[in-house]
């Protein structure tokens, strides 16, 4: 960024902070960040305790918002590397999605069946710590027609972290004061579905394997994470597919998604889990 551009960018901070707190200032933030580099879509999710993700702000057109936000909130967020990083209390800062993605994320069924629908090729995000342990993730998304974020762009975006934290933090405080999260927004049922997916027919170890496969881990990665041999993982997968009456990982994801929607009948158990 040249001196003249830098001066214009920094002077924009004052204009940004002069906007009313909430959506106007968040929109101003997205426009200010666009001065650094092109971004196709912005979305700000807040992950708070046992609530479903709250979309505090986004720039999606109506025809795309259903996939990016509403479909995501139904349950696929449980497989999102950014969400999982928040559950591990990832430090605040600017991060690329691929820094957290499992080894087969871009080949896995979550990506191919859900994430690919968004048409995105890269996603980076500001992680912001909020009050009472909540986390905000402001994602900067690029579609297939845009290149990956360059090292220079990432360095400049990183400089914006203090401003992003202030704007997002104030927007969250305003949202909490105006509209407390309703009880029906809790995601206990969604989490329970994930945690107990296949529990009637699978063993506890097989359930662990299923959860990792759904999140995009390869068999080798599952073996490493669970400290078992790749051959053992292969046996587990074979048994899992047989018990659930499926033949592929894509069918496995399909069963999980239908479980979330409450549309799938339980399979006839071949053997009781032990």
From TrEMBL:
InterPro entries attached to this UniProt entry: Sig_transdc_resp-reg_C-effctor, TF_LuxR_autoind-bd_dom_sf, Tscrpt_reg_LuxR_C, WH-like_DNA-bd_sf
Residues covered by the HTH luxR-type domain: 195-260
GO molecular function terms listed in the Swiss-Prot or TrEMBL record: DNA binding
Keyword Transit peptide: no
Top-level taxon of origin: Bacteria
GO process terms (BP): regulation of DNA-templated transcription
Entry keywords, A to Z: DNA-binding, Transcription, Transcription regulation
PANTHER family (alphabetical): DNA-BINDING TRANSCRIPTIONAL ACTIVATOR DEVR_DOSR (PTHR44688:SF16)
Identification of the protein by name: Helix-turn-helix transcriptional regulator
């Amino acid at each position: 960024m040249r001196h003249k551009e830098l001066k214009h960018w920094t002077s924009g901070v004052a204009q940004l902070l002069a906007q009313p707190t909430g959506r106007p200032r968040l929109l101003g933030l997205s426009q200010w960040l666009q001065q650094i580099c092109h971004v196709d879509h912005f979305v700000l999710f807040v992950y708070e305790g046992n609530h479903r993700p709250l979309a505090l702000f986004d720039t999606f057109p109506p025809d795309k918002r259903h996939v990016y936000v509403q479909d995501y909130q139904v349950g696929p967020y449980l497989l999102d590397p950014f969400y999982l990083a928040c559950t591990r209390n990832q430090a605040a800062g600017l991060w690329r999605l691929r820094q957290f993605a499992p080894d087969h994320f871009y080949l896995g069924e979550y990506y191919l069946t859900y994430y690919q629908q968004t048409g995105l090729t890269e996603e980076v995000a500001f992680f912001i710590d909020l009050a009472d342990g909540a986390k905000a993730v402001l994602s900067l998304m690029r579609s297939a027609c845009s290149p990956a974020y360059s090292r220079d762009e990432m360095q400049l975006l990183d400089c914006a972290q203090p401003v992003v934290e202030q704007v997002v933090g104030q927007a969250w405080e305003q949202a909490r004061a105006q509209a407390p999260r309703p009880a029906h927004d809790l995601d206990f049922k969604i989490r329970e579905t994930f945690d107990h997916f296949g529990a009637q027919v699978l063993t506890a170890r097989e359930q662990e394997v299923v959860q990792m496969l759904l999140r995009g881990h390869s068999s080798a990665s599952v073996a490493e994470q669970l400290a078992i041999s790749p051959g053992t993982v292969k046996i587990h997968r074979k048994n899992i597919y047989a018990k659930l009456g499926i033949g592929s990982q894509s069918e496995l994801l399909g069963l999980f998604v239908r479980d979330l929607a409450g549309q799938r009948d339980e399979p006839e158990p071949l053997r009781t889990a032990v």
